[in-house]
Amino acid sequence: MDRKLWLRSLPLSAHAILAMLVGCERQAASDGAAQIVARVNGNAISVAQLDVFLAHSGASADTQARSLEKSLDDLVTQELLSQQAIEKHLDRDPQVTLTAAMAQRQVLAQAYLDHIGQTVSKPDAAEISAFYKSHPQLFEKRKIYEFRQIAIPLTPENQDFIDARLKHPVRFDALSKWLQEQNLSHTLQTVVRAAEDLPLERLDEFDSLKKGDIVSFKSGKDFLVLQLLNTKETPLDPNKAAPRIEAFLINQRRIALINSELSRLRNTAIVEYFDDMENTVDTLLQTRPRAEFVANDVPGSSNR
Fold this sequence. Notes:
Distance between the termini: 32 Å
Largest sheet: 4 strands, antiparallel
Helix content: 40-55%
Order of helices and strands: HHHEEHHHHEHHEHEEHH
């Protein structure tokens, strides 16, 4: 059979990947683990391994099918390199074993977080309805906003400087000119934002904005200054809003449950810290070799 046709016939594509992502039946996972797609010097590469590799490749659902053959070739290359590393006893190298142990710890920690998240119950119809009614700006009176936006990347060097400037009343064009004069990095553009893309706690403020009004806030690593150009009412009826509300409430419950569990674990654990942290950091900096950039072309690496 033609190799490309055989690869396309594998039962992993969209439905198998989706099953893995949402944590479906363990039987499906065991079937994937038993099904072999390649052998490299006798070592098997399974459908389950290819599934996981695809899921972590960042490929969209539309491109996963086209990425299938390349992903398998990348896995074969990784396996060849891994076999050589073992042959050279690099798996016994202290730095390699330390890195592998830390990676395992991270995977196990994430697995436990995922396990906690799966125990969250779905909100019932009454909860969804109550959320809909209590947030009219998101649904019944939902708006689409058009803004002029200045985005200023915040750094330790410029944050105090910018904070001091923004304590004064802000005029949009004057601020843009001042940023240029100060040679401060920023972007100026027109953006369209739906109500759900704005800070939830400030929706009342956005709802009352008039054309030309200015609002500012931190968003991630940027400080945003927005000047309202136009608004358009685009209400969302209860039926269309219900799936969004359910997903939002489930996510909020997961966050709350995970934070509660983290607090419980820390309160019940015996954690001992040794040495002075400042001295430890100084020691690490003195003993660590100078970092050098080396291109990492191993297939599947995050640098690709």
